[in-house]
Amino acid sequence: MTQTLTRHRGTAAAPPARAPRRRGADTRAGYTFLLPWLLGFILLTVGPMLSSLYLSFTNYNLFEAPKWIGLDNYTSLFQDERFLQSVGVTLGYVVFGTPLKLAAALAVALLLNNATRGQGFYRSAFYAPSLIGASVSIAIVWKAMFGDQGPVDQGLSFFGINLGGWVGNPSMTMPMMILLTVWQFGAPMVIFLAGLKQIPQELYEAASVDGAGRFRKFVNITFPMLSPVVFFNLLLETIHAFQIFASAYIISNGEGGPAGSTLFYTLYLYLRGFSDFRMGYASAMAWLLVIVVGVITLIFFRTSKSWVHYSGDSK
Amino acid sequence: MISRRNFLTAVAAGTVSAAALAACGAPAGQTGSAENPVTITYTWWGNDDRAERTRKAIALFEKKNPDVKVNGNFTDFAGYWQKRATEAAGGGLPDVMQWDLSYLRDYAQRNQLLDLGTVKINTDAFDKTLLPSGQIRGKTYGIPTSTNAFAVYYDPAKLKEIGVAEPAGTWTYAEYKDWLTKIGQAGGGKYFGASDFTGIWWQFNIWLRQKGIDAFTGDGKLGFSKDDLRTWLNLNSDLRGTNAVVPADRSAQVKPKSPFGSNLTVSENTWDNFMAGYLKDSGAKELKLVPVPSDDPDNLGLFLKPSMLMVASAKTRNKDAAARFIDFMVNDPEVGNIFKTSRGVPASKTQRDGTTFEGTDKAVVDYETSIGKYLRDAPEPPIVGFGTLEAAFLRFNEDLNYGKLTVDGAVDQWFKEAEDVIKQNA
Fold first, then answer.
1. Sign of the CA dihedral running B208, B213, B217, B222
2. Which of A147, A222, B276, B366 has the fewest CB atoms within 10 Å, counting from its CB?
């Protein structure tokens, strides 16, 4: 396949291909430069992970030496109603939040891709929320916006919809959290935009000659050509969604309320570990999450073969 | 375009970041240096008001003890315990800490706190019935700074505004509920009566004492039955959902403030040292205190509790400096004058006598004097894991008010949680 190379500054693009052969000195230099990261990774990530794997088989209250209890933590998880509730809340968030966020990101990317003027400005403007979205201050702003007499409550009341504050209403907290994540569509949008720029224009020209409309072009050219990017975003955003913590912690005042409606998996994990001093239990939860996210990633990869097209592939 | 190879790398990085979550649990700690002058670390929970007062006290201590420097640090109550747990795991608890009775057993029984019997702290000026509440298995781990007693707070200005009479001294539960109902009716949705009083652990504990039941047995088990808890929760069944009780969704939104501090309710049942905080939160000019209701006029179930304790880390390298600082904080008359009743009524007589109480501070002291004849011995320090149980007590009550749980469901779930906690810590 021929490619028109209109590569964009600072966007995702393939790195330069590795040069054929390097001598040992270069390799050593490479590892030396890599060392700070490598040490950090081993000491701060791999080490604690292994110790948490061990702790997940123990009863550990942070103060006394861990006591080995085998699989007890894992089995008691499934009799814990709060745990099951946290799984439900998190799955709901992942299943509804992620696709909505990606749809918003793709839609805006498509619009921006056609923009002739001010694209840089709009791109930054839409990207900004995902830079600040995970911050504590935004969660506080969100809480105020959706509280009693907040702008959202007043705005809806103006249209005759009287929901009251969303923050205190267990059936409205999830839509609120999903809106918060959808609003941060900027990061996947920028990646989509980069992907769109890489689609060869002549494909569209050829399609136009054949009389294809906008919809046909999207279904038959844009989406297939963009599918690796869609897949990439889908996977990353799904993993991110499973990890939601800070905003839920702030909005629910660290409790996962009201009525457990924002008791996300990681929040419950945190409460178990640091409020109830059950670090073994919390470690088991963490490892279960790792396994589940791993399995979901694997499933994504298996199914991806049927809808993701890589440029180098022959099929 | 993205190739399969670098795509995989990116995904792997993402998965690893998910896995990094599993890496929580082994934080680092810090200790004071043993140079001259020695530096000790001190931490407390509270709002800005307390921070200001504490800084004044620390400055005074440093002036009187030029060989010791105190490094102060504070957070809010909820975050406080999460931080301490992390520090304890890393072996880096601060030298001296403000402490709560709920967590005394958790840390003392697990050898995290210094046996204060091994250092020099003067307790001559303390009421001898109060000191045991800082002791576990005969050893002293905490010195009470001050005492507090449970009370019903109300805002006389709001009562006047809606035309409901102020309560007159002691009352029964029926009279109390009747009063809440009147407030709910007259308040017309602007003001509610109070938070659901059955969700407040200590109110329940006091009700049990009124019936002669201990909440916890000496060997760390529950002293009451499911039926007791059911009767308790049903005591307010007829008021839930009416304006006598603030709706759960309204109180959820004002957190971490209380509905009372947010001017949603006219009354609230809690410890009398919350006065300063409530005044600041609500902006009210005056708040009044009356005893909690009881159906037995001779037994109100009330007691003086250490509102907070001073403890030291078992691993402190500056035992002497830590002990001097604790002694200063609990005994120095000038410290009493700095804190007034914001920590509670000073526990040591020297500190109490050295403090001038005026206005609202006087109201708190007067309240504790007025209930003097009803006071009984304080209960033992709560069981290990009590913090979890108290939180669950409130949580299930919230679910009850949201209509997500029935009374029977709340009883069963709380007992399940309690049995789990007791088993975990056995």
1. negative
2. B366
State mean pLDDT over B395-399.
93
HEC letters along B41-71: EEEEECCHHHHHHHHHHHHHHHHHCCCEEEE
The average pLDDT across A63-84 equals: 92
In chain B, what residues touch A255 (CB-CB under 8 Å)?
255, 391, 395
Domains B38-146+306-362 and B150-303+380-424 share a fold: yes
End-to-end CA distance of chain B, in Å? 60
Q: Which helix (H) or strand (E) is A155 found in, with range?
A: helix A151-158
A282 interaction partners in chain B (CB closer than 8 Å):
24-25
Helix (H, G, I), strand (E, B) or coil at A173: helix
CATH topology of domain B150-303+380-424: D-Maltodextrin-Binding Protein; domain 2 (3.40.190)
- Minimal Cβ distance to A52: which of B23, B112, B385: B23
Q: Please tell me the predicted confidence (pLDDT) of residue B36.
A: 67
Q: CA-nearest residue of chain B to A283?
A: B22
Do B388 and A275 lie within an 8 Å CB cutoff? yes
Could you tell me which residues are beta bridge partners of residue B45?
B75
Could you give the CA distance from residue B253 to residue A263 in angstroms, rounded to a whole number? 16
Q: Domain locations in chain B?
A: 38-146+306-362, 150-303+380-424
Burial of B45 (0-12, 13-18, 19+ CB in 10 A): buried
User: What's the CATH fold of domain B38-146+306-362?
Assistant: D-Maltodextrin-Binding Protein; domain 2 (3.40.190)
Integer Cα distance of B137 and B109 in angstroms: 9
The whole-angstrom separation of Cα A47 and Cα A63 is 20
Average pLDDT over residues B247-270: 90
Domains and their CATH numbers in chain A? 57-304 (1.10.3720.10)
pTM, two decimal places = 0.82
> For A285-302, how does the pLDDT look when each residue is reduced to its tens digit (9 = 90+)?
999 999 999 999 999 999
A230-249 residues touching B, CB cutoff 8 A: 231-232, 235-236, 239-240, 242-243
ipTM of the complex: 0.79
pLDDT at B182 over 90: yes
**List of chain A residues whose C-beta atoms are within 8 Å of the C-beta of residue B398:** 257-259
**Shortest Cα–Cα distance, B412 to chain A (Å):** 12
Please give the biggest Cα pair distance in chain B: 83
- The backbone torsions φ and ψ at residue B238, rounded to the nearest 5 degrees and listed phi first, read -75, -20
